[in-house]
What we know:
Oligomer: single chain
Distance between the termini: 61 Å
Shape: globular
Amino acid sequence: MRTLKLLSISLLLAITVSAQGPPARIHGTVNDIMIGIIYPSSNIVFAAQSEDPEAPSDDFSFDYYGGWVQVESAAIAVAESANLLSIPGRQCANGTPPPIDAEDWLGWVEDMRTSGIAAYDAAKSQSQEALTEITDQLAASCSSCHARYVDVEDRCVG
């Protein structure tokens, strides 16, 4: 009976550990994420408010996955970046840790995630009107965080 109980506990621990998956590995600063993922992706989302994503373009950087697919991908990149900004151990470009436990930071990161998902849904529906309705929320999450943590405290800048 004791052996069975010990085996059950061992099995439960093994399942719990394997369900957690590998630990997150950090390869860049908050600034790297902003410059490499969030800025270009949010710019694509913002541009799609006034420029038809399906209009012919001379921009060959996204010649295969252009149009609304490009907007969808950019919006989901914004939403997924919320996860990247929340990983403990990441540093700001100036070597300080980002305030990932601060209530306001958490709120703005969650707003970025929520607005990114909403922008993704709008892009899936190929509606510039729906996209325009959500971009104010995305812009507010960005500008609020920057006003608090970049422009004032000179935290996560290079």
